[in-house]
Amino acid sequence: MEYVYNIIFAILTLVIQHFLSTRKRAYFGAILPIIFTVFMWGWVFAKVKDGDTSDFYFAFILGLAILLGGWIEGRESLKKKRIRELNKMKTYDMQ
């Protein structure tokens, strides 16, 4: 059952990341990657003392890449939406 909760949490996190990334200010999309980075470094200092940190680096890089990819995708989506709205306004002005 814990596996299902983890999947739901991951999907919810990605939905929130996409929502924050498509806001007017680009900085809102940086909130979750910053929180993730702080959480992961806190986790490595608290849990992984002298052991193998390759799992940590893999999870950190993968998670950060997914969150930053969502941020970039959200900004591009917002840019396309603005261009469509601008073209729509230009079309109405021509009529």
Tell me what you see in this structure.
It is a single chain. Helices cover 82% and strands 0% of the residues. By secondary structure, it is mostly helical. The chain has one domain (2-94). Helix 1 (2-21) crosses helix 3 and helix 2 runs antiparallel to helix 3.
Order of secondary-structure elements: HHH
Structural class: mainly alpha
Average pLDDT level: 87
Helix content: over 70%
Which overall shape is indicated by the principal axes computed on the Cα atoms? elongated
Low-confidence stretches: none
Largest sheet: none
> Helical stretch count?
3
Number of domains: 1
Transmembrane segments: 26-44, 56-74
Keywords: Membrane, Transmembrane, Transmembrane helix
What is the topology?
Elements: H1 2-21, H2 31-47, H3 54-94
Helix pairs in contact: 1-3, 2-3
Q: What labels would you give this structure?
A:
95 residues, mainly alpha, 3 helices, transmembrane, membrane, transmembrane helix
Outline of the structure:
Keywords: Membrane, Transmembrane, Transmembrane helix. 82% of the residues lie in helices and 0% in strands.
